[in-house]
Amino acid sequence: MDYLNVIKELKFLSNRKSATHIMDYLNVIKEYSNKEFIKHFRLNRTTADYLIACIEAAHITSEERTGREKVTPDEAIYITLWYLSNIETFRHLADRFNKRESTIYNIVKKVTHYFSNESTKYITWPTENHEVQEIVKGFYQKQKLDGVLGAIDGSHIKIRKAKVHQEVK
Question: Which superkingdom heads the taxonomic lineage of this protein's source (predicted)?
Fold first, then answer.
């Protein structure tokens, strides 16, 4: 390849448009009302702040190597929560949070791995039969759901009664 072609190629590459990303999405998140925040992240701000503090204390986002994109603890939590709470690809997350797809993948992997390892501090199953019965009884008293030992998520979805068998609650 001669020098003229190299110069043309460099000129072409320098004129390429870089990918357009949403800028300063963290500032948008800070402006969310509590209701919007819960809708998008499936938990309240206080819990998100607690998770951010955990990640910060564990130095999950500290950069050991050069050349990697910097990710703050709050970015790491919001990226991971958005990934877990919404049906979006890493490409969409990269656009939303102005990061590379590989960075999004790595941070979601690190954060979920960390909390998976820490899960026994927060999630426990009852070990005694009387504890199980007490929990099942509590669910029944509150929602008339028999035989329920646990629930996932905090959303309540109204379900209309069927036209047949309306006696079933």
Answer: Eukaryota
